Amino acid sequence: MPPNSTAAIDTFLRYYDGHGAIIVPMNVEDTRNGVADYVAEKYGNKVMIELKWGQCARVIGGEMQVNNLE
Hints:
By secondary structure, the protein is α+β, with helices and mostly antiparallel strands. Helices cover 37% and strands 11% of the residues. Strands 1-2 form a two-stranded parallel sheet. The longest helix is centred in the first third of the chain and has 12 residues, at 3-14. The protein is elongated and about 40 Å long.
């Protein structure tokens, strides 16, 4: 995550009044780079993770095919 992203999340949480949510979108490359682990460790259940697949997750590397859930 870019450094200013954590500042934005921290600011949101500082003023959180029970309305709204922080949703961190990530694609396959983000998960390979440990973004999901970082977000889970730093924020726990205070933020949501949205995994993007297919054309919604366009990056330089393209898409991947999931053969099974394991």
